[in-house]
């Protein structure tokens, strides 16, 4: 029996179609390669932690004004699509 583990953020990002506009990227010169929102130094993990803690999206956007609402929505949509595609592939 194969055990299933949730995909890492890196797995999700690498499985996204290249035709999608990048809203998240990883560069070894920026925060050691931590996935961040494009044009910022804000880790995507920070958004996930805010949401996991039950904080509203507006609070994240207020605390990190360099990240736009459109970037957050696009990143969540891309992650959703990647998770659904991965589930269908299993």
For this entry, give a set of tags.
90 residues, Arc Repressor Mutant, subunit A, 4% strand, globular
Concise summary:
The chain has 90 residues and is mostly helical.
Indicate the topology.
Blueprint: H1 9-14, E1 24-25, E2 36-37, H2 44-52, H3 57-63, H4 69-89
Antiparallel strand pairs: 1-2
What does this structure look like?
The protein is mainly alpha-helical. It has one domain: Winged helix-like DNA-binding domain superfamily/Winged helix DNA-binding domain (Arc Repressor Mutant, subunit A, Orthogonal Bundle). It is 48% helix and 4% strand. It is built from four helices and two strands; from the N terminus they run αββααα. Strands 1-2 form a two-stranded antiparallel ribbon. It is globular. The relative contact order is 0.18.
The CATH topology, please?
Arc Repressor Mutant, subunit A
Helices, by number, come to 4
Q: Please provide the count of β strands.
A: 2
- The average pLDDT is 84
Strand order of the largest sheet: 1-2
Poorly predicted residue ranges: none
* Helix content, binned percent: 40-55%
Domain module count? 1
β-sheet strand percentage: under 5%
What structural class do the secondary elements suggest? mainly alpha
* Computed CA radius of gyration, to the nearest angstrom: 14 Å
What pattern of helices and strands is seen along the backbone? HEEHHH
Q: How would a textbook summarize the main sheet?
A: 2 strands, antiparallel
Query: CATH homologous superfamily name?
Result: Winged helix-like DNA-binding domain superfamily/Winged helix DNA-binding domain
Ends apart, CA distance between termini = 13 Å
For this structure, what is the CATH class? Answer: Mainly Alpha
Shape: globular
């Amino acid at each position: 029996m194969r055990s299933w583990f949730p995909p890492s953020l890196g797995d999700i990002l690498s499985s996204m179609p290249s035709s999608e506009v990048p809203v998240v990227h990883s560069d070894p010169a920026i925060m050691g390669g931590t996935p961040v929102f494009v044009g910022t130094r804000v880790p995507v993990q920070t958004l996930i932690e805010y949401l996991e803690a039950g904080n509203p999206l507006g609070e994240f956007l207020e605390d990190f004004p360099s990240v736009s609402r459109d970037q957050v929505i696009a990143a969540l949509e891309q992650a959703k699509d990647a998770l659904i595609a991965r589930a269908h592939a299993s």
